[in-house]
Amino acid sequence: MAGEKYNIQLEAVEIFNRLIQVPQLAEGLSDLLQNFNSHNHDIRNDKRYQPLGDYQPLGNYAASVHEHQASDIQETTDKKVMTAEERNILSTLGTTYAKADLSNAMTVNLGRNGYAKFNNGLLIQWGFKENSITGGTIVYFPMSFYDSNYALTPFPYGSSGDTNILAAFIYNANTSYCYIGRRNISNGNPVNSMFSVGWIAVGRWK
Question: Rounded to an integer, what distance in angstroms lies between the CA atom of residue 88 and that of residue 169?
Answer without folding.
Answer: 51
